[in-house]
Amino acid sequence: MEQFTQLWQATGLVQMTLGQLAMIGVGLLLLYLAIRKGFEPLLLVPIGFGGILANIPGVEIAVGDGVLHQFYVIGIETGIFPLLIFMGVGAMTDFGPLLANPKTLLLGAAAQFGIFSTLLGALALSDLGIFDFSVQQAAAIGIIGGADGPTAIYVAGQLASDLLGAIAVAAYSYMALVPLIQPPIMRALTTSTERAITMTQQREVSQLEKVLFPLVLLLLVALVIPSAAPLLGMFCFGNLMRESGVVGRLADTAQNALINIVTLLLGLSVGSKLGADQFLVASTLGILALGMVAFAIGTATGVLMAKLLNLLSANKINPLIGAAGVSAVPMAARVANKVGLEANPNNFLLMHAMGPNVAGVIGSAIAAGVLIQFAA
Asked: Is 2 domain-assigned?
């Protein structure tokens, strides 16, 4: 009987706290959203499962020598996983739409306003005593507005590792909810006439332009903001492999096998930070709320910048593509195309929207470098 009692006391059922039970529920919810609703399944499945493992009592899988903690130390504390993902994303990216219409770069830049406004908002709320975010934590929260999961994880790992779980969940949740969050904002800021603007065919971009662009971009940015070099460097390297045409095997590996492996390990690593003691705190609600505000502001400023460009230029652009300036690639571009088709069935904006969408990836990487350089 004594041995049976010891066995019972050693079970997870006895040791489980309400917080751990709640976080297992959160993990199951993430799995439901990924599997049933199709919300960012490539990351929400491993994040949700990792969160469940991290909250099973009696199994130190997410701390010490636990396998999930080792994944975290190797891949996220060092920044390796987000950087490798950026390399894979670069290998999948076509800069052609951006080069064909360079002024769309301004739309991607404008969408990053959500990052810095939310940084200031988080600091203001801390000054008012509502939350207690440091400058580093506020910077990591603000980057959610870029709608770029790897960038958010990279910045959080560098500046606020204690908030990593909440920031990652917020970033990927809002990326998955782009089709629900963005359209109301886009419609509220545009008229039916503006949404029906048909854009002209883009010019043909030469292969030489595509090869030179990542090199010029990296040198121009890295020399001014050195801390942006890791993210932007991996992104540009992946794109150079794609466009050079001489390392097809490497480019294929970067955008398929390698990015799949890293995404798997990254998700489990992030899930290891969904422990009840780290996630179930008041600041988590603040992060989720501020992240939503950052994303909404980024969407709005992208649209408003497009409207401003139309006032200054005779060659009109559809302001809907400004919403694609957040770097949720290619989801945001698809949403802009969908809303445009609702206003004009012959209005195909997808390739035009890819310009600011790609610019948003560049903008979020630069914004991350700025935050790390000044907040670290």
From this structure: no
Q: Can you spell out the DSSP letters for 5-29?
A: HHHHHTSHHHH--HHHHHHHHHHHH
Give the pLDDT confidence of 71-103 residue by residue, as tens digits. 999 999 899 999 999 999 999 999 999 999 999
On whether residue 107 sits in a domain, the answer given is: yes
Amino acid occupying residue 282? A
Residues of the chain by 3-state class (helix, strand, coil), percent to 5? 80, 0, 20
pLDDT (tens digit per residue) in 275-308: 888 888 888 888 988 888 888 999 999 999 999 9
Q: How many CB atoms lie within 10 A of CB 23?
A: 23
Whole-structure pTM value: 0.90
CB distance 295 to 145 below 8 Å: yes
Tally of structural domains, the chain: 1
What is d(CA 173, CA 289) in angstroms, rounded to the nearest whole number? 12
Range of the domain at 219: 12-375
- Angle formed at CA 333 by CA 143 and CA 271, multiple of 5 degrees: 45
152 within a domain of the structure (yes/no): yes
Q: Is residue 22 part of a domain?
A: yes
Q: Are 241 and 251 in contact (CB under 8 A)?
A: yes
Q: Which token pair is 325?
A: 């300036």
Do you know the residue count of the chain? Answer: 376
The number of angstroms, rounded, from the C-alpha of 311 to the middle of its chain's C-alpha atoms is 31
CB 160 within 8 Å of CB 140: yes
Tokens of 77: 């504390």
With beta carbons less than 8 A apart as the criterion, state whether 30 and 48 touch: yes
